[in-house]
Structures are given as C-alpha cells and as structure tokens.
Design goal:
By secondary structure, the protein is α+β, with helices and mostly antiparallel strands. The protein folds into two domains: about 10-60; about 80-120, Irregular (Dihydrolipoamide Transferase), CATH 4.10.320. It has helices at about 45-60, 90-95, 110-120, and strands at about 10-15, 20, 30-35, 40-45, 80, 85. The strands form three sheets. A two-stranded antiparallel ribbon has the order 1-2. β1 and β2 form a beta hairpin.
Amino acid sequence: MADVVKKACDVKIRRGSKKVACGKDVPNNEPTSVTIGTTKYVMDLCEEHQGALMSALEPYTSVASDVLQRRGNVVRKAIQGKRGAFTTKDVRNWLKQQGREVTETGRLPNDLIQEYVEAHQ
C-alpha cells in the first residue's frame, strides 16, 4: 500500500530572527489557486493562510462577478445556414478544396464564409 504524502503549508512566517515554513497540513491535500489576469498562481496553504488570503482579497472579490471557465475540449460554434449548421472547419476544408490558401486557425473573413454559404445553397 502506497504511503500518502501530506502537503504542508509553504508560507514563510517569522520565528524570532528567522523565517520558516508554516508546516501545517493543507486541507484535503488540495492546493489553493488564484488567477489574476492571465497568470494562475497555485500554492499550498493551511486553513489559516487560506483565510488570510481570502480576507486580503475580499475588498476586490466583493465587487467582482464569478466567471465560469471552460474545461476540456473547446466546443465548436456552429454557424446556422439555410441548409443546416456548419463550422469554420467545414469552410476551411471547402476553401482548400477550391485551391485557396487559408490559415489553420483564427477568424475567417465574412466574405469567405458567404462564398461557402452561396456554394452550398
């Protein structure tokens, strides 16, 4: 049977003239994560330091709104046409079959999408 490794709080606290790691257990061995801008911070915090972090962020989180983050595969957005739905992947494949150069990613110009729609009516 494998031994379970308990995570310990990494916050440095002052003990006398030295700073040492807190060392208290991390609840459920789950790290605390915070995303600010495009940077995600992950840290091992005990309950006391999780509370301190939440208290420090409270003036900002109290005026913020929750945002659900998309997980897993990105869902392709279908474009509704007269003869059914299609995706930009369909448009790109059709353009390549027509001998046109098209980027693999990014937004397609509306005129190229319109060409596809007209050709498939």
